[in-house]
């Protein structure tokens, strides 16, 4: 894996309730730089992963044969236009290994992230608090949420894990450090651990921003959530009374946008 991928994984591990760790040394794999393992050549070939940081494909060459493992890619991402030039660069292969969740959707056209941004904005424009259940490493979705917020006049709030992941990636995405419009939310289970030394490097850069989170939560906002934040959602609804007109977006893949307006 690359050094960036390792840093992202270690950050996610730190914020996970079920701790994990990387037990082996890793090689910093750079784009387009071949790695030789005896008579096998392995080359990372994504110019930048399409939508998700540091998920890339490999071209494997040995005995005059070429195998391309695509990894996780998205032609409908904001960087989907990079796919065709990459295919031209790879040229002919003897075997293709690919991963897909949409192969059986023959009659359904997957929506692009740009199209999803328009649709989510339309679905959420009449709600004051928008909660989005999403993967922390889905950088495309972070961009989409910012577009939705701009269209609907809401403040973007990133939880502390997403805030840290965005500090690692190189894409120019509005985040709590480079944008005054983005605030930071500290989930309760992390708040209880905030004084432990291993968490200081992740929390300290955002302490000033977190002073204004309470004010943002009493206005119109979009907040990314995870299953581990269920206690916080209950608190925001029942104790803090800030979820007065909420909507939960809980699946936004392909052509599907599912939501709930009742947070019982």
| Shape category | globular
> Biggest β-sheet: count, sense, barrel?
6 strands, mixed
Rounded to the nearest angstrom, the radius of gyration is 20 Å
In round numbers, the mean pLDDT is 84
Unreliable segments of 5+ consecutive residues: none
Number of strands: 11
Helical content stands at 25-40%
Structural class: alpha/beta
Task: Describe the structure in your own words.
The protein has 264 residues and is an alpha/beta fold. 32% of the residues lie in helices and 19% in strands. The chain contains ten helices and eleven strands. The protein has helices at residues 3-15, 83-90, 113-124, 139-152, 160-168, 188-191, 197-203, 207-210, 213-217, 230-238; strands at residues 35-37, 40-44, 58-62, 65-69, 95-97, 129-133, 155-159, 182-185, 221-225, 246-251, 258-260. Strands 8-7-9-6-10-11 form a six-stranded mixed beta sheet. The longest helix has 14 residues, at 139-152. The protein is globular and about 65 Å long. The termini are far apart. The mean pLDDT is 84.
List the helices and strands and how they pair.
Blueprint: H1 3-15, E1 35-37, E2 40-44, E3 58-62, E4 65-69, H2 83-90, E5 95-97, H3 113-124, E6 129-133, H4 139-152, E7 155-159, H5 160-168, E8 182-185, H6 188-191, H7 197-203, H8 207-210, H9 213-217, E9 221-225, H10 230-238, E10 246-251, E11 258-260
Parallel strand pairs: 4-5, 6-9, 6-10, 7-8, 7-9
Antiparallel strand pairs: 1-2, 2-3, 3-4, 10-11
Helix pairs in contact: 1-5, 3-4
């Amino acid at each position: 894996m690359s050094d960036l991928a390792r840093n992202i994984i270690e950050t996610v591990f730190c914020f996970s309730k079920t701790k994990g760790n990387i037990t082996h040394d890793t090689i910093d794999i750079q784009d387009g730089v071949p790695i030789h393992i005896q008579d096998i050549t392995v080359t990372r070939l994504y110019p930048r992963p399409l939508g998700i940081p540091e998920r890339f494909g490999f071209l494997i060459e040995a005995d005059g044969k070429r195998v391309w493992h695509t990894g996780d890619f998205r032609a409908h991402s904001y960087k989907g236009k990079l796919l065709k030039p990459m295919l031209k660069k790879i040229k002919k292969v003897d075997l293709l290994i690919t991963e897909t969740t949409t192969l059986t959707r023959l009659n359904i056209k997957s929506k692009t992230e740009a199209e999803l941004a328009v649709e989510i904005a339309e679905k959420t424009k009449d709600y004051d608090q928008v909660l989005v259940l999403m993967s922390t490493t889905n950088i495309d979705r972070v961009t989409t949420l910012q577009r939705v917020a701009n269209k609907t006049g809401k403040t973007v709030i990133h939880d502390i894990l997403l805030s840290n992941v965005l500090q690692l990636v190189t894409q120019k995405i509005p985040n709590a450090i480079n944008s005054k419009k983005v605030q930071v939310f500290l989930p309760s289970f992390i708040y209880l651990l905030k004084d432990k030394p291993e968490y200081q490097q992740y929390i300290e850069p955002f302490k000033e921003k977190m002073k204004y989170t309470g004010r943002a939560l009493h206005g119109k906002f979009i907040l990314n959530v995870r299953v581990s934040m269920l206690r916080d959602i209950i608190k925001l609804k029942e104790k803090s009374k800030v979820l007065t007109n909420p909507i939960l977006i809980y699946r936004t893949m392909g052509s599907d946008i599912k939501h709930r307006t009742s947070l019982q």
